[in-house]
Design brief:
- It is an enzyme of class 7 (translocase).
- This protein is mainly α and 241 residues long.
- It has one domain: Four Helix Bundle (Hemerythrin (Met), subunit A).
- Helices cover 77% and strands 0% of the residues.
- Helix 6 packs antiparallel against helix 7.
- It is globular and about 55 Å long.
- It starts with 9 loop residues before the first helix and ends with a helix.
Length: 241
């Protein structure tokens, strides 16, 4: 029976980078070209800046950086410990961006209660809580390698599973935020449903869906190196028997 060799992750990594650049370009264009729609009833320049920072921090800071952290083990050369340290630092940076991004949304005269009413806000709070718990578990595991070796081996599959779920939840939360925003814009009086802004927002949603699919696929795809190691081990075992 022929054994199929897994393909190199390089094409998936390239597609992930292209998708990330596309998403970055779309969210920056949305924030710069249509910034007046973020706070249409506010005359405060500070409120406008915080409103524009929210999608930038949550998309570029949280989703793109955390996606890059997930893919570190697939492309970064070096020892396993070095890859873990880079992964931990990138996830810490993504977590900081996510916390500050939520703070920008709750900042201002409206307060927390006025902004905590939608499915988007509920999902965002759950997502950042899971993200923080994941990072804390990784931090404790990294600095207590010897003492927590047995525990780390046990929880590693769950850490990977919850990490990918949290990443998917972050993308889903962003999608609900885009839907909430575009629905608000389209239900305004004399608001058209076919505007340049709606095209940008819809394209951003599709770009996020593509990015998340590619990142998760690249993360779960077996690497050629590990496959060759397993194949060599199985062949040696057959020769011994």
């Amino acid at each position: 029976m022929a054994t199929s060799v897994p393909t190199s992750p390089a094409p998936l990594l390239l597609l992930a980078r292209i998708s990330g650049l596309l998403v970055s370009a779309l969210v920056i264009s949305w924030a710069l070209l249509f910034k007046s729609s973020f706070r249409p009833q506010s005359t405060s320049q500070e409120d406008l800046i915080y409103a524009v920072l929210h999608p930038l921090l949550m998309v570029i800071g949280l989703i793109l950086i955390s996606g890059e952290a997930i893919l570190v083990h697939k492309w970064l050369p070096g020892s396993r410990g070095f890859k873990k340290s880079v992964h931990l630092c990138l996830q810490g940076l993504a977590l900081a961006c996510g916390i500050f991004g939520i703070w920008t949304k709750f900042h201002g005269n409206d307060g927390i209660a006025a902004n905590f009413f939608s499915l988007h806000s509920w999902m965002g709070l759950i997502c950042i809580s899971l993200f923080g718990a994941q990072w804390l578990m990784g931090f404790m595991s990294f600095w207590h390698r010897g003492e927590m070796r047995a525990v780390r081996i046990t929880v590693l599959p769950w850490h990977i599973f919850l990490g990918l779920c949290t990443y998917g939840l972050a993308v889903a939360t962003a999608e609900t935020g885009l839907l909430e925003k575009i629905t608000f814009l389209q239900t305004k009086k004399d608001g058209s449903k076919h505007t340049p802004e709606s095209m940008v927002v819809n394209s951003l949603g599709l770009g996020l869906a593509l990015l998340s699919g590619v990142v998760i696929l690249a993360a779960v795809s077996p690497s050629s190196q590990s496959f060759r190691s397993e194949l060599t081990y199985s062949q040696s075992k057959k020769l011994m028997t």
